[in-house]
Amino acid sequence: MIMDGNGRWAQQRGQPRLAGHEAGSETVRCVLNYCRDAGVKYLTLYAFSTENWSRSEDEVSGLMALLGNFIRHYERELIKRKVRLRVIGRREDLSGHLLAALERLERESSGFERQLIVALSYSGRSELVRAARLIAEKVRAGVLLPEEIGETTITEHLYAPDVPDPDLIIRTSGEMRISNFLLWQCAYSEFYVTPVLWPDFREREFKDALDAYAARDRRYGGVRQECGQEVER
Ligand code: IPE
Ligand code: IPE
Ligand code: MG
Question: Rounded mean pLDDT of 195-210?
Answer without folding.
Answer: 98
